[in-house]
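Next comes this protein.

***
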Amino acid sequence: MSRTPWLLGVVVLTLLPATSMASSVTVGDIELNNLFAGVNVFTVNNFTGSNNLGFFPVADDVVFTDLVLTATESDSTVLTFNLADLGPGSDTTSTVSDALLFTQVVLSATLSPATFTLTNGDSGTFVANPVLSFTLLPSSGSFLVAGTDSGTFDAQGVPEPSQLALLGLGLIVIARFRR
């Protein structure tokens, strides 16, 4: 009987997250617009980097490296745009000089660094998966609409080592208790 409270405490600690940090945080957005008739423009914005307005959710400067846009046309043709690295608080564009219809656009990049602080005052640091991937799909209909379709994308958090250690400890205790 004296083991039960201790075991219950370990199980509860195992199930609780080690911190109250978010599992993801918004780091940018992508937009499809018309530059003028027949010319589509994809714009990617980097929302990281601190400023005095508190607009950016990520306080640290994070660069999107290896930035690639892959656009799928209505006839299943795939266009790939290798964009320059995108620094904090800035944007980059890629122009398509045709009135093409796109069924989706996939954005991929690497976050550098992948560990950063947030502007909302969360304690500690946010550890993200360094690989960023986002798919922009039509909000209605079969094709993306310039001036209408856009989307924000998030950096996904990864489990902290302390959370994994607590989980492992809890599983060991449960296995030993069952014996």
About this structure: Helices lie at 3-15, 161-178.
